[in-house]
Every structure is written in C-alpha cells, then in structure tokens.
Design goal:
about 325 residues, alpha+beta, five-stranded mixed beta barrel, 11 helices, 9 strands
Length: about 325
C-alpha cells in the first residue's frame, strides 16, 4: 500500500475552555484575559531605556501566546520559573500584526487548581487515523526480519499506548501529545520520496526497508525520554541520564534478542541509523551517519523538524522577517501566503 496517497485529516476545532476562561485559541484583540497558563518560556529583558520587563510564552492545550510584564518585572521574575503554571490577568493587544498579552497580574497557581490535561497541546491529527497509517506502513515492509522486529515493537500494548501519546520534543517541534507519531509519519513520507528518487538514479545504493524502519524508529526512545504526566512536557529521569538515542538502541537489542535467528547485521544497521540521526556529536549523536540509510533518515528528520518549527513560527508572527530565533542563530523570512 502506498501510504503517501492516504487522504489528509481535517483538523478538529479545539475543545472550548472551562466556563469563564479563555483558551489561547479563543483570545482576540482587546480581550480581557484571566486564567491559568503554563510558562513555556521566561526571559528577563531590558527595553531601550534600560527598564526591565518580562517576556513570556504562555501555553495551554490549544496553543501559545506571547506575553509581557512591564511593572515590577524584576520582583515578579522571582515568583515563578519556566514550566510553572501561573494565574494571570491582563489585556490582549495586537502588536506588529500578532496578539500579545500585557499582564497586570501574575502569580504562581495553586497546584490543586491545575488539571494537567488543560496545558499540554494535542495533535490536530486524529490519533486513530495516524495509528492506522502506521500499521499500513508496516505492511509495506518486504524484509521479513525487519517486519517482525517492528511488529514485535509496535504490537506491545505498553509501547503502543506510549507511542500514540508521546510528544516529539520538549519545545522545538511537534511538542504536543501525539507529536511523535505525527512527526514520524511526515518523516516517512519524505523518506519514501527520497528512496523512490535514488532507486531510479542509483539502483541498489539505498536499502528501502532499512530507511523506512529507521524513519519510524529514529525517535522511538522519546516514549521513554519525555513525559506529559505533570501537565507539561518534561524529561524523565532516564531521559536526562541516558537520552532517547541510546534508549531506542537498547530497546532494539532487547526485542531482537527475543526473535529467534534475528540477523545481527540488520540490528546493527538499525541501531546505527538511530544513534547517528542527530548527525553531529555536539547535538547528541555518539556516531555520525556512515551509511546511505543513516544519511537519508538524518536528512528527512532534519528537514521535517525544521519546517515544522517554521510552520509554528508562522502561526505566532505576522509574516515577513521573523524575530531572531536563538535556537537557529538567525531570523527567517516568512512571506504571507
């Protein structure tokens, strides 16, 4: 089955917030806003006159919005940290073509008033549809050993439940429940296109099944590295100490050991793709890509994650040149479409 022809899913509208409280997606210009939000980013900055202010990115399950605190900013900066939940009161204003909250009040929210499900965004794609698409991809694998390894992984009920909910990252891209599955399916479609091209240009250079399996597995360890249980995307203890690349490599070896006669060279090839997909040592890869398949998966993952970041940036900014993006050390030009 050619999964690239599956129909797109129409994004469902966000569920309305609790009575009397606006979700981020419901905020409009000049709206009076009171509510509890997650602090996804907190920066203490200074204006051109040297006056201190707080620059915040506030989140709930429907999205994110920039916010500013101009009065008593230095004192209030000590009251809460990033990834805390805060109760705010303020007014939405249009600034350079996008909404921004100007806050008159901000304080740490009591833990008993926080419902974790209100603050972690959820994929706009339907979870069941994405899981069905993943199962269809597994049916395309021609290599019986790779097929049985991936089936053994994804047929595990605990793995399936974790994979369907896991985010793909803490903040940079697909940082929402279901984001890992959404990202992997997008990476898969890029990989299929690359494999089709190189099968035509240089037959035999690229192993299609290894690329497809590597694309589905490259971030598999995120199901153990990240957690959304506390109402925010956080690293687990094991995720901090080991990391998703090594966690996935270990899981592959563990599952392969339960499959009689599983070829060692296929396991090693898959582990290399996973361990090398960040490409550079300073980005967490213990190895750089040294096979054609590892290079294909790295390229597809990098392209999809960066374009997903730009899509999110377009949603926050008004078009034209973006603000400086520290994570990429540059601004981006995003023309209005």
């Amino acid at each position: 089955m050619n999964t690239t022809s599956l129909p797109a899913v129409t994004p469902p509208p966000p569920t309305p917030g609790p009575p009397g409280r606006l979700l981020v997606s419901e905020i409009t210009d000049k709206a009076k806003v009171r509510g509890i939000f997650l602090v996804s980013r907190k920066v203490v900055a200074s204006d051109k006159n040297g006056k201190c202010y707080l620059s915040l990115l506030l989140s709930d399950r429907s999205g994110q919005i920039d916010a500013r605190v101009f009065d008593n900013a230095a004192e209030l900066a000590e009251v809460f940290d990033e990834q805390d939940h805060v109760r705010v009161a303020g007014t939405a204003k249009s600034f350079q073509g996008r909404l921004q909250l100007h806050l008159q009040k901000i304080e740490r929210a009591p833990e008993e008033e926080i419902d974790p499900g209100d603050y972690v965004p959820v994929s706009r794609r339907d979870s069941d549809d994405m899981w069905t698409e993943l199962q269809a991809i597994l049916d395309t694998l021609a290599d019986p050993d790779i097929a049985r390894l991936l089936r053994a992984l994804f047929d595990d009920p605990d793995v399936a439940a974790r994979f369907r909910r896991a985010p793909a990252a803490k903040s940079i891209h697909h940082a929402w429940i279901g984001g890992l599955l959404e990202h992997n399916l997008s990476v898969h479609r890029v990989i299929v296109g690359l494999c089709d091209h190189y099968e035509h240009e240089t037959p035999g250079l690229v192993d299609r099944d290894l690329c497809i399996a590597g694309g589905l597995l490259h971030d598999f360890g995120k199901i153990y590295e990240l957690s959304t249980d506390a109402g925010a995307i956080e690293y687990t203890h094991e995720g901090q100490l080991i990391g998703h690349l090594v966690q996935c490599s270990q899981k592959l070896a563990e599952v392969a050991a339960t499959l009689p006669g599983f070829p060692r060279d296929r396991l090693t090839a898959l582990q290399h793709i996973v361990l090398a997909h960040h490409d550079r040592l300073e980005f967490g890869s213990p190895k750089r890509p040294m096979t054609a398949e590892a290079m294909v998966v790295h390229a597809a993952d990098q392209l999809d994650s960066r374009l997903a970041y730009l899509q999110q940036l377009r949603g926050r900014e008004s078009g034209g040149w973006s603000s400086y993006q520290k994570v990429f050390d540059r601004p981006f030009f995003l023309p209005r479409r």
